[in-house]
Design a protein that fits this description.
By secondary structure, the protein is mostly helical. It has one domain: Up-down Bundle (Rhomboid-like fold), CATH 1.20.1540. It contains ten helices and no strands.
Length: 271
């Protein structure tokens, strides 16, 4: 997430894709789902937006391997002073801006894997909402610590906070043993996602003690914790039918938006 970081994230092992009952009729067999964009439209749209922004940056003269902080800010990266000065939109745009080819490649590989697993569980609307909300949550937590620590120079970018958010909600949703998937398989999928999140959080924390790269751990942790929180109210409605599940999603995501707005207001009064 940081302008000094490649934000490396290691993708989880390949695994079969889970199926949520409300969306099951529209989902083909697992071996075909990976090849069909129509079965995971939100995942591919998010991938497309991220790649399009990166291509746009390159076409405008930005280095594909080592962009400057000024260039990142120009294309929408976060900066505490600019955000608190009124440019709150940067909290969202930064989730589509990346610090070089390695950064975007690792993030998109993880988004693709987790998105294909998560979209059948939450639907296209749900996956897009989780990406946006957890990305915002991660950037807000990072902003809060920047303000508290009087760090006015940090520049952050990347989708990794949102990727961690998707991992967080998957850990919760895959604990629902009422899903039409063998419990042993659910546990295996959940364990894979937990290992993915734990390993990459450890890698991020490890960079605190080195000068090789700099990773915004606050953004990662914020996205992950908010993803976990979003999953809790969804579990009771996952197997209660599409209409009730979508209604619960809208209520959950709407409430989450309000909470983030309050958090942002609180941060704005810290300065």
């Amino acid at each position: 997430m940081s302008s000094y970081s490649q934000g490396e994230i290691i993708p989880p092992d390949s695994y079969p894709r889970a199926v949520e009952p409300g969306y099951a009729p529209e989902i083909p067999p697992p071996d075909n789902r990976r090849r069909n964009i129509l079965t995971a439209p939100a995942t591919y749209i998010l991938l497309g937006i991220n790649c399009a922004v990166f291509l746009w940056m390159i076409l405008r003269g930005v280095s594909p391997s080592n962009p400057t902080t000024g260039q990142l800010i120009y294309f929408g990266a976060t900066n505490p002073d600019l955000i608190l000065g009124g440019q709150w939109w940067r909290l969202l745009t930064a989730t589509f801006v990346h610090v070089g080819i390695i950064h975007i490649a690792t993030n998109m590989w993880c988004l693709w894997n987790l998105g294909l697993l998560g979209e059948p569980l939450v639907g296209p609307f749900g996956l897009a909402a989780v990406y946006v909300l957890t990305g915002l949550a991660g950037n807000l937590l990072s902003l809060a610590f920047n303000v508290i620590l009087r760090d006015h120079l940090s520049v952050g970018a990347g989708a990794s906070g949102a990727v961690f958010g998707i991992a967080g909600i998957l850990i919760v949703l895959l604990s629902n043993n009422k899903l039409p998937i063998p419990w042993s398989e659910l546990k295996r999928l959940r364990r894979s996602v937990i290992q993915f999140a734990a390993l990459n959080l450890i890698i991020g924390l490890g960079t605190v003690f080195t000068n090789i790269i700099r990773i915004d751990n606050f953004a990662h942790v914020g996205g992950f914790l908010f993803g976990l929180a979003l999953g809790v109210p969804l579990i009771p409605r996952m197997t209660s039918g599409r209409v009730r599940y979508l209604r619960r999603q809208k209520l959950t995501f709407g409430s989450a938006t309000f909470v983030l707005a309050l958090f942002g207001y609180w941060i704005s009064n810290l300065k």
